[in-house]
Design a protein that fits this description.
Elements: E1 5-12, E2 16-18, E3 21-23, E4 35-41, E5 48-57, E6 72-79, E7 85-96, E8 101-110, E9 118-124, E10 131-132, E11 137-141, E12 146-153, E13 162-170, E14 181-187, E15 201-202, E16 205-208, E17 214-219, E18 225-231, E19 238-239, E20 244-245, E21 250-255, E22 272-279
Antiparallel strand pairs: 1-4, 2-3, 5-6, 7-8, 8-13, 9-12, 9-14, 10-13, 11-12, 15-22, 16-17, 17-21, 18-19, 18-20, 18-22
């Protein structure tokens, strides 16, 4: 392995893997087995296409090998690096008087030669009374590790491609004097998306805003938790993270595109919405 690159996990369909040796065990004629290696590159490892070579040698045990010419193989993995991924703030937090939230926009550009499978955008530098309202979750980042809120872009981002994420903040005082900073973590595979419900609550209001965002609304139960789901055809539904708690008897939600939904609503021919009641107070 290259410096700063290590195998962190293995998975085999048959046999065991230990110390660089895959013991397959009995393998019937014409059948096959597979080995999956998870490779992790440290921050200092050089990025590049197929720059992590992996070589294999095959040895038959307790059986004669009639053909010794096919007993070796090779493969190569690519390294994508956060250092080659640019994060730029294109809009600082500004208050939206209708929602009472601060909205900011951050653009991520993939400078790697290979696609990025998925991205977490971490938010740092916030005062204690500011929360990331549309955070997908929290996780540990950095050394020493720090627990930070993050937004998940759960799609592939191709070489030289960019995506703009809308970041929402809540601050009870509505004081605009805060300046978040952003860090990213690249994921080797997309996260498993949440499962959509079998049915939901139809929206009572669906309004296109001046910037192309969509505002939707339902009559809600104060204190109840709801999930938003959207669909291009009313057949295949996708759930939005995070879920939201109704502050009153009307609940509004704004589709501002990634990371809530896979694309901005203005970029789609049609999009349908519904709410799902997750928990009553």
């Amino acid at each position: 392995m290259l410096p700063g690159v290590a195998i962190t996990a293995t998975s085999t369909s048959a046999g065991t893997f230990s110390g660089g040796v895959w013991t397959v065990g009995d393998l019937e004629s014409g059948s096959s087995s597979s080995l999956m290696l998870t490779i992790r590159a440290d921050a200092g490892a050089a990025s590049g296409t197929e720059n992590v070579p992996v070589a294999f040698a095959v040895t038959a045990v307790n059986e004669p090998d009639p053909d010794g010419t096919n007993n070796s193989a090779s493969a190569a993995a690519s390294i994508i690096s956060a250092a080659d991924t640019e994060v730029g703030v294109i809009a600082s937090p500004a208050i939206n008087l209708q929602s009472g939230l601060f909205f900011s926009k951050v653009t991520i550009t993939n400078g790697n030669a290979d696609p990025i499978p998925a991205i977490r955008l971490f938010v740092d530098g916030l005062p204690d009374d500011v929360i990331v309202y549309n955070a997908s979750g929290t996780a540990s980042l950095g050394s020493p590790p720090e627990i930070l809120s993050y937004l998940l872009y759960n799609q592939s981002l191709g070489p030289s491609d960019s995506v703009t994420l809308a970041v929402e903040f809540y601050r009870p005082s509505l004081d605009p004097n805060f300046n978040p900073t952003y860090k990213i973590d690249l994921l080797p595979v997309p996260e498993t998306p949440p499962v959509a419900a079998d049915s939901g609550i139809d929206v009572t209001r669906n309004e296109k805003l001046g910037n192309g965002d969509h505002l939707i609304e339902i009559a809600s139960i104060p204190g109840a938790t709801y999930a938003v789901e959207y669909s291009p055809d009313m057949t295949t539904w996708m759930r939005v993270l995070p879920s939201i708690t109704a502050p009153a008897n009307r609940l509004q939600w704004i589709d501002s595109g990634p990371p809530k939904t896979e694309s901005h609503p203005s970029a789609t021919a049609s999009r349908f919405y519904r709410f799902v009641l997750i928990a009553a107070p």
